[in-house]
Each structure stands twice: as structure tokens, then as C-alpha cells.
Amino acid sequence: MRVLLVPPTFRYAREYPAFLSFSDFPSAFGYLASSLKQAGHEVYGCNPNNIVGYANAYSMLQSVLSQKIGVLKPDLIGLGGLCIDYRFLKDAIGIIRQIDAKVPIVLGGQIVTNDAEFIFNDLKPDYVIVGEGEQAMVELATRPHENGTLAIRTIIGKGLPIDSLPFPDYSPFGIDEMLDEYSMATRVLYRYSRPDPRPFNIVASRGCPYACTFCIDHHRSYRARSIENIMEEIKVSYERYKFNILILLDELFAVSRNRLNDFSQAVLQGKEQHGWDFDWCFQTHARARFDLESLKLARQAGCYMFSYGLESASPTVLKSMDKKIEIEQVTEVIKMVEEAGIAFSANLIFGDVAETQDTISESLSFWFKYGQRCCIFLAEVKPYPGSALFNECLKRGLIADKKQYYETIDTVPINMTAMDDRTYAAMMSLLAQLEQGWLFPQKAMDVHYEVESNHRGKYQTYVGGDYYTVMAKCPYCGEVSPYRQLMPGVPFMLGLSCLKCQRKIKVEVS
Ligand code: SF4
């Protein structure tokens, strides 16, 4: 069967064009492609990203889908995404129906897993896959189901042992171009570790045993890949793509210091045997309880940053969120990362049902103390479908019209707290100002820069500006390091972490 897979357009409903680095490419499509190929199917990709020259994202999508479907004439089209991809998925399904009303469409991803019946009835794909998609997609491609009611059009994706899956195959989606041309579009957290970043993603585990109230990813039991299997994928991918930053995407990469130690040892061995030259970062839960020794070993193996899902520094809110962490676990590890030379990153998300001005004050006090040196970001909690908060909002009538909610997702604030709306809005506005302002990190010293005279590819062509290499001295450790960025001109400010001690600094260039 000829299967066409279509990943979502990055920031489809918000910004056109928005450029996609491979660091934000959904790994699920790579896994679907490799599983389908292994089962003998022809797999094609239509990646509607990094395509410029259209009036808006809809026109671009219409054009690229028409071209691909016209040329490839697929037997099945696979779409998928998160709840924030609703507008993309709705438009993509509508466009595909206009081009070819008969080609079956299968829809998967968290948007389906968390709200299958509504999404099936609303977006009207031919099939939906609930859960992990590899086996279900192969089954569908091999034995197409008859059209019918939701019950027979819903395929429950089973969570297979991850080691048994073929490594993800990103070749149908233009991975080379994403890496070669758009790596500088990556997020701040991955941008400065190397002057010329090439971030690559890997998934070392799936699922999570916790059930935080805002989370949409807690439905699956935790399953980790073996270290050998992960190393084999790193080896194959490094030889092929020569990445220099490895992002471990899973929410819970290391459940214990032993897992981190095993991974670090294996990376050190790989660096020695194969000459790997990359930095890496990961995220995990505070209960992993690292010690200084394990963090120093990780640093030696190239780890430059890790993050905890912190979310709040108020014990009241942490309890309400069912986070199952103690704030002391976080402060302890912050002291250790400073000594180990690793950056610590976390989010503080505000607006939980238990949030008050007092709890905001507690979290901000923590942020003022630790956020000057660590990458702790401030944001608003969102009640996404699949979370306990979403159900709470439905129950309280804060989300009255589900379809309207999906249509305007992330654009309309929802006050779930007991604060009045005016106070809530003022608090969120204050947090946004603090987040964007970089008012408190220390300034780098002896800043000077050079402008690159050579033009460097498509991203620069489309965005404009010049590449600046900025030399700056860390106010903490005194190290002078180069940081590179595409900017329209001086003056500008870079918010980043020192390459040596990894403390957060701001580099003012004028
Ligand atoms: S937020 Fe993180 S720890 Fe909590 S349920 Fe989700 S994945 Fe698990």
C-alpha cells in the first residue's frame, strides 16, 4: 500500500511562516514510517514546514497537499498531532477531501488518544488510532477496515516493547534539509551549546507512572528502552546525520541515578570508540534523586542541561497538581548542578485551581532566588483535553463549547483560580513581563562581536539579517565563549547559559 504521512505545520494557527528545526519534529512520524516500511509498504512524507512564498499557512498547505497527492496517488493518508494542532488537522482533512474524496484518512496522536469520540465526530477522518500508532497503522495499511461506526473505525494502538520497534525513519520528511538549513531556528535551550547547532532527537522511553492534573501524557505505563538499543540508534544516526546536540525527548528519561549513570558510561564509551562529538540534554522527574557523582559523570559524558518538571514552587499548588515532588528535592539538585557544571532548567506554570496571589508570590520568590542563574521559565497552565484540569473546566462550565475551545486553543485565557478575572489577568501579565524581560540575570562582560560576511543558507534568506558571533566573558566563572545568532542588527540581547559553568547570563550587544 502507498501511505502518505503528513506531520503538522509548526505553529500553523499562529504564525506563517514559522520555521521548524528538527528539534521540534514529532518523532511519532519517524516511528510510523519505519514500521510501515518494515511491513513492506511504500511510505511517503509530505512535510508542510519551512515552505515560504504563500499568503498564509492555509494556502501553503493546500498547495503542497495538492502536489503530493496528485503525484503520489496514495492509498492511505496518515495525519496526527496534539490538541494545539486542531486547526491544522481540520484544514488538512478538509483540503484532502477536496482533492480526493475517496482516499481514506487515518488520524492519530494525543488529540485522538485524549478525546477520540469528539475528534472523530468533529473532524471526520475515516479512522482514528487511540494510543501508540505503529502496530495499529501497519494493521490498517495491511487490512483496511470497512467504513462504519466509531467502534469499528477506532483502532487501539498497543504499546509494544520499544526495543522491538525499528528505529525511526525521518527520511520521508526531509530531515537533511531540517538539519542543514533550519537548525538555527531551534529553541533557545538548544541553540547556544554549539555555535553551529545540529540538534537531533531521540526517545529513550515512553509513558509515565505519575498523573499530574495538567498533564495530557500520563495514560501509558512507563517503558524504557535498553541502553544498548539506544546506543545503537545513536550510532546509526550519528554516522548518518553528524548531529552535535542530542535531545532526549521523553518526559522521564532517567527514573534513577543508575539509569543516568548507565547512559553516561555508554556515551563515554561511544565517544571513545566512535569519535562521537555531541552534547546532550534530558528531562526527568525530581524523584530520580541524582547525586553529585552521577551529575559529574553526566557532565563528563557531554550532558550540558537537564530539566525537572517543577511547575510550581508552592507546596499548596504542587499538592493540588499531584506533582509528587518536594521543593527541597529541587533546591538540592540545583546546588549539585552548579558544582557539576550542568545547566538546570524548569518551568513554573501558574493558574492551577489552587493558585492564589500568595502561591504566586511563593513561586516567584523561588524564581527570584534560583531563576537568576538557572533557566526557569514562567508560563500559564493550560487545561488541555486529556488532563484532569480540562475535565474540571468542563464541570465548572469554564469551557462551555468544546469545539470553540479547540478552535481558539491557547488564545483565550481560562481562569481556573478563585481570583477574580481582573486580578488573574494582571498576574498573568506580570509573569509575561518578567519572562520576556530577562531583567535579573547577570550581564556578561567584555562583549564584542563579528558579523559573518558569508551568506548561510535558506533560513537566513527567509528571515533576513546577519549571523553575529559574539564573544562574551561569564560574570561567574570568567570563561570567554563564543555565541552565535542570526539578528537583524545591533543592538540586541542574548539570553543564554555560559558554555563552561552553564549559569544563566545575558549578553548585551551594542
Ligand atoms: S507532567 Fe511529567 S511527571 Fe507529570 S504526569 Fe506528565 S509526564 Fe508524568
Present the secondary structure layout.
Elements: E1 2-6, H1 27-38, E2 42-45, H2 57-72, E3 76-80, H3 86-99, E4 105-108, H4 110-113, H5 116-123, E5 127-131, H6 134-142, H7 150-153, E6 154-157, H8 175-182, H9 188-191, E7 199-202, E8 205-206, E9 223-224, H10 227-241, E10 245-248, H11 257-274, E11 279-284, H12 292-300, E12 303-311, H13 315-321, H14 327-340, E13 343-350, H15 357-370, E14 375-380, H16 388-395, H17 402-407, H18 421-437, E15 442-443, E16 445-451, H19 458-463, E17 466-473, E18 480-487, E19 492-497, E20 504-509
Parallel strand pairs: 1-2, 1-3, 3-4, 4-5, 5-6, 7-10, 10-11, 11-12, 12-13, 13-14, 15-20
Antiparallel strand pairs: 8-9, 16-17, 17-18, 19-20
Residues 208, 210-212, 215, 217-218, 251, 285, 309 line the site of iron/sulfur cluster.
- Count of the separate structural domains: 3
Q: Please bin the fraction of helical residues.
A: 25-40%
CATH-assigned fold name of the largest domain:
pyruvate-formate lyase- activating enzyme
In whole angstroms, the N-to-C terminal distance is 58 Å
CATH level 1 name of the largest domain? Alpha Beta
Please state the overall shape, judged from the principal axes of the Cα atoms.
Answer: globular
Overview of the molecule:
- With 510 residues, the chain is α/β, with parallel strands linked by helices.
- The protein has 3 domains: 2-163, Cobalamin-binding domain (Rossmann fold, 3-Layer(aba) Sandwich); 186-437, tm_1862 like domain (pyruvate-formate lyase- activating enzyme); 442-509, no CATH class.
- The protein contains 19 helices and 20 strands.
- The protein has a 6-stranded parallel β-sheet, with helices on both faces.
- Strand 3 (76-80), helix 3 (86-99) and strand 4 form a beta-alpha-beta unit.
- The longest helix has 18 residues, at 257-274.
- It is globular.
- The structure holds iron/sulfur cluster.
- Iron/sulfur cluster (SF4) binds at residues 208, 210-212, 215, 217-218, 251, 285, 309.
- Iron/sulfur cluster (SF4) binds next to loops.
